UniProtKB/TrEMBL annotation:
Cited NCBIfam families: 3A0109s03R
Signal peptide: 1-36
Descriptive protein name: Phosphate/phosphite/phosphonate ABC transporter substrate-binding protein
Source organism of the structure: Leucobacter albus
Electron transport is among the record's keywords: no
Family label: Belongs to the phosphate/phosphite/phosphonate binding protein family.
Keyword Thylakoid annotated: no
InterPro entries xref list: PhnD (IPR005770)
Domain of life: Bacteria
Gene3D superfamilies linked: Periplasmic binding protein-like II
PROSITE patterns the UniProt entry points to: PROKAR_LIPOPROTEIN
Keywords: Signal
Pfam families the record matches: Phosphonate-bd
Coiled coil: none
Gene: phnD
Length: 339
């Protein structure tokens, strides 16, 4: 049964839906297959539910950073699930956020690590169940950040250093909202922007700009990027003056660009966004859903598992989901016309 959410995004545009379906089918390969035919072999009726579960599972990974090597990074997780469930689990990187949702709806994936908007959409459109949400350093919400290579323009005060990274306008409090008055200076700026499905890389920063009186189609120069680390690097390399990302995406690229925290300054943060999480396909039996949920939560509670999740998505723990918390994301998307 679907969780009761606001229906704000039910009537999404046909063009967006069609494009996303095509992307999903191109990005993911169906590796699960139904075993429901077992009844024809004379199996007892009580085995029917278990027989309907697939003989293999696909875990859809959405790149929050450069997707190269993401499947290999996630291999310990998929190996663990394979062993715990007794079912082969394969990790596949989807083209983008929306493709992962459509892949779940098309039977191309059964487990999805999805941002908050896509968790809502996967449930609303396809009955997928949000079973876990992530914790990062004990927090179940996070702000989107505005970052710049031109602090003289955007900082009303002297940047302060925290954990080797610079912040200004109160953004060092590491909680949103902060510094949003400064975004009024973005008129005409080149801005690194993720796709419309990204809460931190698009939805919440764009909403903040709209509320500040911007026409986001004409008042800024959008520089499209594919992932959060790409947004950081666009600012770092001077391809954009401002970039949007989740807090604090600078950490993703710090290994290769150790001075990123000094050259890319966070000057504002949006209101808090519900954390991403795990959705399971409606095609799975309640028993298998529970086994997957338990296995993932147990994995996140081990030192090795926590380290692996940290390397994939900066996750420190997986905790039971609060699906109602996703309503705020649906309302933000509605305000931006992402139906």
């Amino acid at each position: 049964m679907r969780t009761t959410y606001s229906r704000a995004l039910t009537r999404r545009s046909g063009a967006l839906r069609t494009a996303a379906v095509g992307a999903a089918l191109a990005a993911l390969t169906l590796t699960g297959c139904s075993a429901a035919a077992g009844d024809a072999e004379g199996k007892p009726a009580q085995d029917t539910e278990a027989a309907q579960d697939p003989s293999s599972l696909v875990l859809a990974l959405v790149p929050s950073q450069d997707q190269d090597g993401l499947v290999d990074t996630a291999a310990p997780l998929t190996d663990y699930l394979t062993e715990e469930l007794g079912i082969e689990v394969t990790g596949v990187v989807s083209k983008d956020y929306q493709a992962a949702v459509e892949a779940m709806g098309a039977g191309q994936a059964q487990i999805g690590f999805l941002p908050s908007l896509q968790l809502w959409q996967a449930n609303d459109m396809y009955g997928a169940e949000t079973v876990l949400q992530t914790e990062r350093n004990g927090n179940i919400t996070y702000p989107a950040q505005f970052m710049t290579n031109n602090p003289d323009k955007y900082c009303e005060d002297t940047p302060v250093e925290r954990d080797g990274k610079l912040f200004c306008n109160g953004a060092d409090a590491m909680a949103g909202p902060a510094g949003l008055d400064s975004i009024e200076k973005m008129q005409g700026a080149k801005v690194a922007v993720l796709g419309p499905g990204s809460p931190a890389g698009y939805i919440y920063p764009m909403l903040a700009l709209q509320e500040a009186g911007f026409n986001t189609d004409t008042d800024i120069q959008q520089v499209p990027v594919t992932a959060n680390d790409a947004a950081v690097l666009a600012v770092y390399n001077g391809d954009a003056e401002v970039g949007f990302s989740f807090w604090d995406a600078r950490d993703i690229v710090a290994k290769d660009t150790p001075d990123v925290g000094q050259k890319v300054v966070v000057f504002a943060m949006t209101e808090e966004i519900p954390n991403d999480g795990v959705a399971l396909s409606s095609d799975l039996s309640p028993e298998l859903k529970q086994r997957i949920t338990d296995a993932l939560e147990e994995f996140s509670n081990t030192p090795d598992g926590s380290a692996i999740l940290e390397s994939i998505y900066s996750i420190t723990k997986l905790a039971p989901a609060n699906p109602d918390s996703l309503d705020v994301v649906a309302r933000a998307a509605e305000a931006l016309g992402l139906q």
